[in-house]
Amino acid sequence: ESLQALVPLHGVLLSKDVVDNWETIESFQARSDDVVIATYPKAGTTWASEIIDMIYADGDHEKCRRDYIFNRVPYLEFRVPGMPTGIDQLNGTPSPRLVKTHLPIHLMPNSFWEKKAKVIYVARNAKDVAVSYFFFHQNVSALPDPGPWDKFLDNYMKGNVGYGSWYDHVKGWWEKRHDYKILYLFYEDMKEEPKREIRKMLDFLGKNMSDDALNKIVYHTSFDFMKTNDKVNYKSLPKEVIDQSTIPFMRKGIAGDWKNHFTVTQNEEFDGDYKRKMSGTDLHFRTVI
Ligand code: A3P
């Protein structure tokens, strides 16, 4: 039996380990002061998690939580045999907990909404996510072999990848952003002006912070700093889980890398398909089309 199997759950492909344990995940008991970082994979999860962790450490890098095996912000649906599950880690975490998830909104455990937990959603443009996800598949043993780029891109456009369709994910969270406590942010905005976006997070979380502390967060969460910070660059994970020998997890960290990977034909097809899938939403990304 392969670790690599992706199986559908309510129309969304998830790893078999997640689907096999769905009842445990679905019945997860959220707390009212949980803060969730929700993203489609490769949208800037690790970056946003580090920012929020530093906010909760009042901008003091030394005070950041350091006691998780996987990363400092447990990943709700994390399940790798032989390692503590995300839920095990969360159950052992004092409040306020930071929780990371890639679930589409319709699969979120209900208790997050019942407890009125806050969610920071980060969206990144579809093309850069496709490129980043393609490289990630080459690193992570639990993900299927992506095949050649052209094939992966085709699967991605069809939603035949882990966590399903990027289009459905970003739209699903966008449409519900006023129904729950959701702050909807964009990777490209964070790249453009991190301080402005961190201030939005602070406001949303009801936190005050000195300019000095805010500057420290900007500094410690820059791509260059995080790339060399072994607490967040996943270098502490065994090679069997993620092999970074050729492609580092902290790969490029820019907006617009898709231009180095999409052919003209791929780009035209992608844009046509994108227009169809994104028609009828007022959600707009600035680096695509
Ligand atoms: P690239 O592969 O395009 O470089 P996630 O954490 O959701 O898996 O997303 C990973 C992507 O975010 C990678 O994109 C990674 O380089 C990028 N990233 C991580 N930390 C970052 C930071 N501090 N600033 C900008 N991008 C960052």
Would you spell out the secondary-structure blueprint of this structure?
Blueprint: E1 6-9, E2 12-15, H1 16-20, H2 22-26, E3 35-39, H3 45-56, H4 86-91, E4 98-101, H5 111-114, E5 118-123, H6 126-139, H7 149-158, H8 166-175, E6 182-186, H9 187-192, H10 194-205, H11 211-220, H12 223-228, H13 264-277
Adenosine-3'-5'-diphosphate binds next to helix 3, helix 6 and helix 12.
Report a brief summary of the structure.
The chain is an alpha/beta fold.
Task: Give a structural overview.
The protein is an alpha/beta fold and 289 residues long. A 4-stranded parallel β-sheet has the order 4-3-5-6, with helices on both faces. The termini are far apart. The chain is 39% helix and 10% strand. The model has no long low-confidence stretch (mean pLDDT 93). Bound molecules: adenosine-3'-5'-diphosphate. The site of adenosine-3'-5'-diphosphate has 20 residues, from helix 3, helix 6 and helix 12. Adenosine-3'-5'-diphosphate binds at residues 39, 41-47, 128, 132, 135, 221-223, 226, 250-253, 257.
